Amino acid sequence: MTATHRRVAITGAAGQVGHDAVTAFAEAGWEVEPLPRARLDITDRVAVVDALDALRPAVVVNAAAYNAVDAAEADPGTALLVNATAVGHLSEVCDRVGSRLCHLSTDYVFDGTSDRPYTETDPTNPLSVYGRSKEEGERRLRPEDLLVRTSWVCGEHGRNFVKTVLALASDPDRDLAFVDDQRGCPTMAADLAGMLVRLVGEERTGTFHVTNGGPTTWCGLAREVLELAGHDPDRARPIATDQLDPPRPAPRPRSSVLDGAALRLAGLPPLRHHAEALGELVGRLRR
To answer: How far is residue 265 from each of residues 208, 239, 257, measured CA to CA in Å?
Structure first.
């Protein structure tokens, strides 16, 4: 029994990227099998074998991850299990059933010390347990798999920075202080999902950096969100990372802007500037 053409299984389908990926693939005409954690725990190798043996998808999109960056510092075993060992399960079973694998990773595999954006061929050097677990997951992939690194993901589903800013801003007396010395590219989950559909549909392999355009800081992003929501953007007060109270357990890269060189070389258009996509997201969240 061979893999079924145009059938895609999406792990982590209840998360913010997974949720939008289910929608995007369905709209593109794929037969979608959503696999939220309640249906498939990817850390259970036997369960992965049984699920993929039964479904025989042409492609598995792995949007499942342990994303609790700070919690991972005290729980490295769980981070490694979900972000690395489980990726190995998926890659192994995909090889067995003839499925392609598309895996999502992060800008946190870089240390943030570069004076230019990171390309797909730059060496990784993660600072945190979370980053190291994601780096190890990347190593579990086959050469024929598709690795997509992204950053600062925000969407309509799940918890994220945009939702946090909107919630905090609802209290007019709340002091809004945001880090202004970490730099990256915000990525809207719906835009990322659309590019996943294109990369998978064109049977791309290798590593691609996919983010919306327009590097900024967390404070800069907060100001954009506030203005879009009709609040005074100057309510967002810039602070340095070392001024956070309480301090965050996990170190962050100071500049983790990703350069989508692989997209350009493949003749594929980059995602639009984050400001346009952010405006649409804030509009949906405020309905």
So the answer is: 10, 38, 18
Judge whether 286 lies within some domain: no
Q: Does 177 map to a domain?
A: no
Report the number of distinct structural domains present in the chain.
Answer: 1
Q: Which residues are catalytic?
A: 130
Quick one: tokens of 115? 């004076």
- pLDDT tens column, 215-226: 999 999 999 999
CATH of the domain at 20: 3.40.50.720
Query: How many of the other CB atoms lie within 10 Å of CB of 150?
Result: 24
* Cβ-contact 261, 119 below 8 angstroms: yes
Distance in angstroms (rounded) separating the CA atoms of residues 173 and 8: 47
Q: Residue 287: which pLDDT band, with cuts at 50, 70 and 90?
A: confident
Q: What is the pLDDT of residue 3?
A: 65
> 9: domain range?
4-155+187-212+258-271
Residue 234 within a domain: no
Strand partners, 6: none
The answer on pLDDT for 1 being more than 70 is no
- Determine, yes or no, domain membership for 22: yes
The Cα 160–Cα 63 span in angstroms is 15
The mean pLDDT of 206-229, rounded to a whole number, is 97
